[in-house]
Amino acid sequence: MLSRKLSIAVGVIAGTALFGFLVFLPVILQGQQYDLLIKNGHVIDPKNNIDTIKDVAVGNGKIVKLDNDIPASQSKKTIDATGLYVVPGLIDIHTHVFVGSKADKFADGIYSVSPDDFSFKSGVTTVVDAGTSGWRNFPLFKEQVIDKSQTRVLAFLNIAGSGMSGKPMQEDVNDMNADSAAFVAEKYNDIIVGIKIGHYEGPDRAPFNKALDAGKKLNRPLFVECHLPQYSLEDQLQMMRPGDIITHSYEQVSERMPVVDEQGKVRPFVLMAQKKGVLFDVGHGGAGFWFSQAVPAFQQGLAPNSFGSDLHRFSMNAGMKSMLNIMSKYMAIGMSMEDVVTRATWNPARSIKREDLGNLSEGAVADIAVLSVQKGKFGFIDAGGNKLEGNKKLEAELTVRAGKIVWDLNGLAAQPWK
Amino acid sequence: MIDPKNKIDEQMDVAITNGKIFQVAKNISPHQAKKLIDVTGLYVTPGIIDMHVHAFNGTDVDAYIANGLTSLPPDAFTFRAGVTTVVDAGSSGWRNFRLFKKQTIDRSQTRVLALLNIVGNGMVGRYEEQDTTDMNPQQVAYMIKRLFPDIIVGIKAAHYWGDFTQVDRAVQAGNLANVPVMVDFGEHQPPNSIEALFMQHLRPGDIFTHTFSYGPTVRETVVDDSGKVKPFVFQAQKRGIIFDVGHGGGAFSWRQAVPAMQQGFQPNVISTDLHAESMNSGMKDMTNVMSKFLNMGMTLQDVILRSTWNPANVIKRADLGNLSVGSEADIAVFNLRKGDFGFLDVRKTKLKGIQKLEAELTLRAGKIVWDLNGISAPLWEEELQKK
Fold it and tell me: How many CA atoms are closer than 13 Å to the CA of B3, on its beta-carbon side?
């Protein structure tokens, strides 16, 4: 912006006096109109149906232009992304980042993790916290983590007033209040994208109904994180509205019926729910992703809509590792690169009704991931400790958040030291 | 296997029982083990020791490193980089060490050791760190010798704007507790003499960190303006001063490190200075810092020595950093990737390289705590068929 204004100002001066001498100045200053130019990368921007080699110009923290050949001379900084993929900054819609110092707790505790510790190194620029906080402690979460993070942190608000504060608090039906949740969600509507229900072990339907009620009041999606052992899977899916999100989709644990039956078939009512518009999130976590579920489900058409990692202390060093690792798993399962990128960017953006994110439209915030595809012999582990082999693996070369380089694995943006 | 303490640098099998190294030999029969991992083509080393981190992570949004957001929870960074032991470099002092222990040390899978700050409040903030009335050698020594001799392995002096007072107090405490002192010696205008620091104030075995930093207005450099390592630096190392990398967000410049390496000045210890401002910058993680030295020409054996057995000795913990029979089974397995890589220093300038270490598998006390590509895991279809 500054340089463009300058060039106009200088242009006016040039037009009125000293014409012959100064006429080249606007051209030089024009050359500074972009802050960052990512050249020659393979752009995949599912929202805009772009899947080809293009240059991406960034200015003032926003996407300014996508074009076939933008001259490097027009940018203050140019990065050569030949051989790399340039995609919207990745969105992880299932994390637990209300980190604090309480032992044995997710809410304000050490079971949650800091978003910046994990996001940028795997190309993620937006995380959505999956109900670690409720209406009582969301303000603390905001002050302690959200406001202090470089990563964009959004949140599903737990219907339980104190979020994931452990038993007995999170099981207290009386502390689940649709009005209070809706009030706080409205107050922070630039951060809170929906309501979460999960971690309730009783048979009472009230918690689910209250969460739905809050979701309806807000016209926002419900994020269903299972851990609802006395609700059947069929009932959960039936109660969900189109656009509501179920996570841990491919888990195989005793507390919830798996989506794939003993014969290896996806249950018909699950496919009907998908048809109705229920969205299936991976929610890998420490126990939420099993190849014995995910592979047959994928083969039978139940691909995930998003790759929520369920990042927390117990998944970070296990089979999950990072959202890029989950994306690589799906490439090994057989999903195309384009489909993988869609499910890591535009799909989650739409599912949380944040269509300003997950795309590279002109004017959008410049959240960008530059990815490389490593070729070789790789292995991927599921929650059961079992392995799937693959020959490709995604790596985040460069991550840009609001136009600023926040991760540069191999010094793509750097000059040689001499 | 590379095990510098035991002078092993060849293909070897290693057997583990009850969390300890049971046997290291050429051909151990697979039938004797409940679980077998094939690491053909990979390097097996002692679990890496990162001697300089800030791990006193907490929720005091006004604090700097002590109980603040600039410190990081160790488990999020260690195992994925082959690290099994970290040494917190003075984030806490005697006043808040107990909180650090309760909140982080006791709750981490990583072995967390600590250097106690000579300042009672540790690294709460820059101004508090100037308070000489809060630098109490006797109290520091009690904390180490009487209360936590198994966790506190030394003393830290850092971020002090004055003369040698802070260092001298730290050394005094070091004498009382019989432990080494690590000094972050900068932020003086004009800079204090590092020759005086090495030759008059520190003892053999004391540690100079941020060795390759370049900020000449506030910190004297080891390499002079003409690119020569200052002669007294070699003499200091000969005298027994330990030179630690302590990369961090502002303390590693190619213009210092590259000429130093070329002139034969190698750091004794490779470490990260892990904190929130270094984790996503040029530092990244321990394998990245180790890889930088590989690409500057240090041999892999020397890199491993300086990140295992050397730091173990510096902190007087000869039980760590080796694969001797009977020692705790902290083990790292590395893949040495070949390709075109780049490495950033703190000024965001780049050194190109052709090799990069990657942690394939990490064991802490015999337990697998990181497995990048599932080399310890069975194939899922085979497991399904068994059912």
Answer: 22
Q: Where does residue B54 rank: exposed (0-12), middle (13-18), buried (19+ CB within 10 A)?
A: buried
Which one of B276, B280, B369 has the shortest CB-CB distance to A121? B280
Burial class from Cβ neighbours inside 10 Å (0-12, 13-18, 19+) for residue A229 reads middle
pTM (two decimals): 0.95
The pLDDT value recorded for residue B151 is 98
In the CATH hierarchy, which fold is given to the domain comprising A89-351? TIM Barrel (3.20.20)
How many angstroms separate the CA of residue A282 from the nearest CA in chain B? 18
Q: Which of residues 88-147 of A touch B (CB under 8 A)?
A: 99-101, 103, 108, 110, 113-114, 116-118, 120-121, 143-144
ipTM of the complex: 0.96
Question: What residue in B sits closest to A123 (Cα-Cα)?
Answer: B280
Q: Which fold has domain A2-87?
A: Urease, subunit C; domain 1 (2.30.40)
Size of the A and B interface in Cβ pairs below 8 Å: 122
Domains and CATH numbers, chain B: 46-314 (3.20.20.140)
The two tokens of residue A346 are 């535009």
* Domain limits, chain A: 2-87, 89-351
Residues B139-159: tens digit of each pLDDT: 999 999 999 999 999 999 999
How many C-beta neighbours within 10 Å does residue B104 have? 27
**CA–CA gap between residue B256 and residue B275 (Å, rounded):** 22
pLDDT tens track for B175-201: 999 999 999 999 999 999 999 999 999
Separation of alpha carbons A87 and A370, rounded Å: 6
Residue A4 has pLDDT above 60, yes or no: no
